[in-house]
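hey so i finally got around to running the thing on that chain from the lab meeting. sorry it took forever, my laptop kept dying and i had to restart like 3 times. anyway pasting the input first so we r on the same page abt which one it is
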Amino acid sequence: MAKSRRGRGGPESVAETVHGGVAELRPDRDRPRGWTLLIDGAPQSHVDLDDPTYLDFAYQRRLGHLADLAAPPGKPLRVLHLGGGALTMARYVAATRPRSTQQVVEIDAPLVQLVRRELPLESGWRIKVRGGDAREGLAKTPDGWADLIIADVFGGARTPAHLTSTEFVADVRRALRPGGFYAANLADGPPLRFLRGQIATVRTVFPELCLTADPAVLRGKRFGNAVLLAADRELPVAELTRRAATDPQTGRVEHGRALLDFTGGAAPVTDATAVASPAPPPEVFE
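ok and heres what got predicted. didnt touch it at all, straight out
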């Protein structure tokens, strides 16, 4: 059942039970048609219906940089989104790269219904949202179809174990065209065991990797998001570094020897050994 709460002189928030918990769309006091999606009180994503190119969350800005650099400016892309949320990144690509073809795989059908009802997509956007498990949706993607695959899947604030293995990443590479980008939003905290293991895992499949995150996260000082980029070609590390340094929430990019040192000999994860990402500590959302 949906419940609404009156904002201060503005639109109402909307709360509704979905498979993942209680989803709330909360109006942004600073942007007339801006909304934040929260699941069980944890912020998940932000959408500005007036400006789909506006990315409020730091990790989404980093994903936006990768979408910007996946091809020359304005060139349409074929993008597979594993995990939908409020469809923020699909909106961003549609707005910055008209005529792009996008597939979104989201397991939480009631969440999709809520988002599409309250935060409708523009009619001309080529975005198809499919229900189902992200790995099963990936398996149905034709070989070499995608220019960009974005994995941003969380269940109960944790990445499911079956989306963290070498077998999963191998199927990602199968679905990417040569030269395509794979971007994964990962969350971890000290001692960063999960993040290091994910770098080792992706390295077994892709020859080129880089990682961008808040420096405090990379130093193991706090829990947070890190975005991992992988490809079979040279990555635009210099431009990513410049963009990360000038973001409102400054990020750092690790690549090459520094990234190998950061990984610290962590072992790759397989389907047989995979575990979900760690749950964030309660104070992260306070």
